[in-house]
Amino acid sequence: MKYVKKLVCIDCGEEYDAEPDKYLCSKCDNEGILEVEYDYNKIKEDWSIEDLKANEDLSIWRYLPLLPVKEETPRPSLRVGWTPVYDSDVLAQELGLEEIYLKDDGLNPTGSLKDRASAMAVVKAQEAGATTVACSSTGNAASSLAGNVASMGGKMDAVIFVPERAPMGKVTQLLIYGAEVVSVQGSYEEAYYLSDGAIKKWDWYNRNAGINPYLVEGKKTVSLELAEQLNFEMPDWLVFSVGDGCTIAGAWKGLYDLKQIGFIDKIPKLIGVQAEGCAPITKSFRTEKPLETTSEDTLADSIAVGKPRNYKKALNAIRESDGTMVNVSDEEILDMMVTVGQTTGVFGEPAGVTGFAGLKKLVDQGVVAKEDKVAAVITGNGLKDITNGKKAAGEPLEVPPNLELLEKTYKRGDRF
Amino acid sequence: MKYVKKLVCIDCGEEYDAEPDKYLCSKCDNEGILEVEYDYNKIKEDWSIEDLKANEDLSIWRYLPLLPVKEETPRPSLRVGWTPVYDSDVLAQELGLEEIYLKDDGLNPTGSLKDRASAMAVVKAQEAGATTVACSSTGNAASSLAGNVASMGGKMDAVIFVPERAPMGKVTQLLIYGAEVVSVQGSYEEAYYLSDGAIKKWDWYNRNAGINPYLVEGKKTVSLELAEQLNFEMPDWLVFSVGDGCTIAGAWKGLYDLKQIGFIDKIPKLIGVQAEGCAPITKSFRTEKPLETTSEDTLADSIAVGKPRNYKKALNAIRESDGTMVNVSDEEILDMMVTVGQTTGVFGEPAGVTGFAGLKKLVDQGVVAKEDKVAAVITGNGLKDITNGKKAAGEPLEVPPNLELLEKTYKRGDRF
Questions:
Q1: Most B CBs within 10 Å: which of A112, A203, A347, as the mutation test of the B interface?
Q2: Chain A closest-CA separation from residue B388 CA (Å)
Q3: What is the pLDDT of residues B318-367, one digit of tens each?
Q4: What CATH number is attached to the domain comprising A300?
Q5: Chain B (242-281) residues lying within 8 Å, Cβ to Cβ, of chain A
Q6: Residues 6 or more apart whose Cβ sits within 8 Å of residue A373
Q7: What are the binding positions for pyridoxal 5'-phosphate in this chain (chains A, B) (predicted)?
Q8: N or C: which end of chain A has fewer CB within 10 A?
Q9: Is there a domain that residue B414 lies in?
Q10: Residues of A in contact with B197 (CB under 8 A)
């Protein structure tokens, strides 16, 4: 924590001590979202790119000077972060680009980018003296919390509130990790409010990324890593799917931090992509009006958030970086699952590839130029949502165990 | 290939040039399995632990001197290998041990250890001049082949034969990767024979690990890595689940290689664990009689192989290392999914945790002593087989979005 100065309200600018369980701005009636402020000059004095390169810890904790945790707090044992970056010519071609970097965050230990935030939550909960951590989640925040808590080896408990539409893969995963799972018969928003009430009532640590300022600090490691993996030569654009708004806000915060300490000299323009059936942040971005709650009509469950809690940070990220937003249909999302899978061998969940679908649209529209350098992040593993994967991929060819019959099918040209 | 000497038949000792598409021993009527022989003295001269430590490539290709590939052959872009090793006190306690190392190979890019063999197959296929690679598989070999082929960016095709019982997650995954999938209405054995016929008929490259000597060389990287991650201080025991026999054979080969070049001074005793409902190799090990085909009655589909093709190499691995074999029930496997998940945050598929279930049994029986140092490998990701995960984990607590009702449920002590 030696580089953390304060928590600052992004609405009114009020400052607070960086207590581990300080979530929202009291002056703004507990509506204002807080942001962690670092002493960048001090970090610059103590930490260089060479120091970073010499660090053998290939996980999010290699960025300790830029993380709001005490060095001595025990960390989950799961290896979170340092996910691979691939440079795919064929995918670039499919998207209408000359070059694309794909970062596969579905290879985090529980299968999504959310491990970055959950690992942080487990550390901060301990610093707050809590042994139970709770959240509401469409799935990935939940399973990542459950997994990271489990890896503490019985020292902590996780209580998870999921909306009933959460895919079976995600719910099963958190039951396997031993979390207490509350399946709320209602929407994501209703699950959120129930968790909020329960957290206050039983004094649990709150891992709801929309209000806990430390979680965005975990998520920002995705752009710290990407920058390092690209040798600190930043692309023109960086693309994320957007649900609650926390991930793209985190990505921006990481880039902002790196620029402040001089590791990078430009921040890529951020592209936020929402699903047509649930795009409140895109609407607010375009109309420049306050956010209006929408319905949640998309199969990309991880970004189906009708009332996003971190939209202000998300909008700020996009505007500050001179970026843009775009919506895509469920059909475009399903098509992109196959395009990414066939060209790169990476299987992303629907929300995981949504950013790529939006990117394709923006290239078609001429917003992103063919020669622009672009990076995009697969935020979750496709194995988490097989039902939609199946919709995207179709059915296998069924044959009896007989070579002649296979040859006949083959010759009919049905599939081969 | 500069360290590869020959292919040697493990039955009759006949030697062959290491052609990329030489699969079986012609002298033994194409029944004898071949093994890759290296010039260990030359490797010792050229390669040291220090060289290895200085290598920044954190994938299976860091072990190039011990791999049977040409340096210049293009490799799949997926980052295969360097999966994490965890040291869990709580899991050790559950197993009755003082210490256990868990290697999570479910974090390979397509979710299983098989990526190691498939990456090898993609390289060897190119060396053989083939553009189509085919296999029959219960799932993981298939999806790993499909993913690794896809990551070549359209340069190659995969044709996959799966038995109809393959879990939806695995089949969906390979359709997403764009493979041609043939779902064979029959057993694993029938799928195998159909693939064998088709491969010969259409002259595809054969990625059936039981007969292709190079694939075991890919799989052996799991023990090369484990050794390096444990600083070349080897445990007393190393545990794997066993289906076709190739994985444990590969693990042994890696250890044997490391001992020959002086990187390690002892080979751990290998423990092979099969499911009670499909344990032909355990039976042959115990009776010392030739292998008899069995039925395939287990939910651990990845090791449900009634007629394993590589049982001789597997038995050799276990006997040469002075190891042992044991069987476990499906119930013990399901229980172990939860035990591993809750204590470590690692979600393994049924076959992925079968080794741990067997280990627990051997500790109970006194074969493995409490103070022995043990490592075991999670061979596949639990997200691949949600149906069985759900059987193991049970159901979440369902509540309406109402705090009072939640509290009532809570107070009734049903779940919290």
A1: A347
A2: 9
A3: 999 999 999 999 999 999 999 999 999 999 999 999 999 999 999 999 99
A4: 3.40.50.1100
A5: none
A6: A99, A101, A235, A236, A237
A7: 140, 379
A8: N
A9: no
A10: 403
